Amino acid sequence: MGYFLLFLAILSWSFVGILVKTAGVMVDSATITFARFSLGIVFLGILLFWRDKKLRIRLNHKWIWIGALGKSCNYYFENLALSSGYSYGNILIGPIQTVILLLLSAFYFKEHVSKRGWAAAAVCIMGVLFISWNGQPIGQIVSGSGLTTFLFVLAAVGTSFHVLSQKVLIQSMDSENMNFSVFFWCSLLMALPLPFQAHATGSFNLWSAGALVLLGLITGLSFNWYAKAMRKVSFSVLILFGNSSVLFSILWSYLFFHEPITLYIIGGAALFIAGLMLLNWPLKHAKLRKSTQA
């Protein structure tokens, strides 16, 4: 069951890019962001009510708000970037987030970061630069893809603070209640820009409406699928499967939208997958060895 839940979470995340592009045919990025959260808490709320027969929204915890602000920025800027760029563009968020969390660990939390950690960060950055460059002239990067990459950087900053909030909140809350509270406040925050930004980008169609519903389902349930899988699947499998979402995203973008996949994209993806594996795999095994010796 653990492998199935892991596959379900990774597969669903890989579809986010094409679902956002599909929904963007009908509505703007701000509406997509609001729909991801509001529909997400509907699906998550049904799950919680079925399990606990009640719903509880936490308010009096600063990390709830830090997580809500971070995740709101993540989805807002990610959807904005996806609307103007390629559907596989959000593969940049993972490696950028990794680098940001390493920098926060080293310079804000004053934690030790090994040489291997810095080397992994450098490899991740090289991969991001390869994908952002994609063989284009410098002028075209500055005027076009450079701005899109910057939006993904902002999205990665947001999700980094969401990850930090999860690390704190999971000590006192289960993942379902934690996500329900965070995503509830996210939906209210993302309702604020709707009067100024919301507009139809095209006529109503079932494909776009279905994409919005699926994005809500992914937002509401995929994090819980992944959390449950982590308890049942070995860490090495998590690393391999987790990074495979990048390859799926690239594949879907080619199959569904016929977007150009160049050697720069493939090479960049390979670089930051290697960087993420270099960072995580040895560190986890070291922790496992320590725990078995204790």
From TrEMBL:
Membrane topology value: Multi-pass membrane protein
Subcellular location field: Cell membrane
Membrane-crossing segments per the record: 30-50, 62-77, 89-109, 116-135, 141-165, 177-194, 206-226, 233-255, 261-281
Coiled coil: none
Keyword terms: Cell membrane, Membrane, Transmembrane, Transmembrane helix
Main subcellular location of this protein, as a coarse class: membrane
Residue span, EamA domain: 1-132, 150-280
Pfam families: EamA
Cellular component GO terms held in the UniProt record: plasma membrane
Keyword Membrane appears in the UniProt entry: yes
Keyword Transport on entry: no
Family: Belongs to the EamA transporter family.
Name of this protein: EamA family transporter
